[in-house]
Recover the amino acids of this structure.
């Protein structure tokens, strides 16, 4: 019993001592030196570590609500560049495909001579050509056309000196007044001093003919440059001569050749070919029938020689042809 009391007393004393140690204030460690601060609490150490990290840019403002309402309608599709349809342009008239080669002034009005490639046209006001162009009016320095399918008007300027609407018959080159015939009724020769390189023309035919007997008159041409087209107008004595036929000479054989006879005394000729030089070559031949006695005359009133490149070939106007008509 005595031993049990002793053990119980020791156990109680031990319990009291442990309780005193647990609730006693904690003293600084004897290992720490004087003046050395104690370690900061855990929360303070975490704050200072975050502050020492480098700053970073913000992610940015939110572009929309993450869980906002959504539409299930399909998004519109953008049209591709090929699918863009341009507005149709208004139709326009094509360019005028003709060139002015000369003019013919007759009793029934003025007509212009037009060329297109190898073709020659004689056109009067109000006439419509095959390309749909109608010649509306003729002035000295311009021709006014109307493109019939669209009704639009266009003007084509006349290059050069312009058209002479008052002269009896004139083209870009005009023949001078005929000179007196030499004795014996021979046909005058070509001028003695033509300009250098100019083409030469002359009439060739009989000097005397019998009334009622047809005869031919040929217009000869000599040109070192290739001649492609040759629109012209001839005038003749309608009281003594009657044209029966007009045909192309060797110069335009196989080409385009047109003519029109005005009974009042003029012949219009449109001739064109592939283009060739000429040496005293027939350009055209006119067949006449003499109808009255006297001195008959034939002359070139207008003429244009056109080269292969479209330019004009200089030439000397031929002297008039004269023949005596005998009964």
């Amino acid at each position: 019993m005595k031993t049990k009391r002793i053990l119980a007393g020791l156990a109680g004393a031990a319990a009291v001592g442990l309780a005193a140690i647990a609730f006693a204030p904690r003293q600084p460690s004897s290992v720490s030196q004087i003046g050395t601060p104690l370690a900061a609490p855990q929360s303070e150490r975490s704050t200072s570590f975050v502050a020492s990290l480098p700053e970073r840019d913000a992610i940015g403002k939110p572009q929309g609500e993450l869980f906002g309402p959504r539409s299930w309608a399909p998004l519109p599709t953008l049209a591709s560049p090929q699918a863009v349809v341009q507005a149709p342009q208004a139709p326009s008239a094509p360019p005028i495909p003709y060139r002015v080669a000369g003019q013919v002034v007759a009793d029934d009005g003025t007509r212009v001579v037009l060329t297109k490639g190898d073709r020659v046209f004689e056109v009067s006001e109000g006439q419509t050509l095959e390309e749909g162009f109608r010649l509306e009016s003729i002035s000295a320095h311009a021709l006014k056309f109307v493109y019939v399918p669209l009704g639009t008007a266009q003007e084509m300027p006349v290059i050069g000196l312009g058209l002479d609407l008052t002269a009896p018959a004139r083209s870009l080159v005009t023949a001078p007044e005929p000179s007196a015939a030499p004795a014996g009724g021979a046909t005058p020769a070509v001028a003695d001093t033509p300009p250098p390189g100019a083409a030469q023309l002359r009439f060739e035919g009989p000097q005397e003919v019998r009334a009622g007997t047809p005869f031919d008159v040929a217009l000869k041409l000599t040109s070192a440059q290739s001649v492609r087209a040759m629109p012209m107008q001839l005038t003749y004595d309608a009281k003594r001569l009657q044209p029966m036929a007009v045909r192309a000479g060797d110069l335009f054989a196989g080409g385009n050749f047109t003519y029109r006879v005005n009974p009042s005394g003029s012949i219009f000729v449109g001739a064109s070919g592939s283009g060739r030089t000429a040496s005293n070559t027939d350009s055209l031949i006119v067949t006449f029938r003499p109808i009255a006695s006297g001195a008959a005359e034939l002359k070139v009133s207008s003429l244009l020689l056109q080269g292969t490149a479209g330019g004009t070939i200089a030439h000397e106007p031929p002297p008039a042809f004269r023949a005596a008509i005998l009964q």
Observations:
- Confidence is low (pLDDT under 50) at residues 29-36, 167-192.
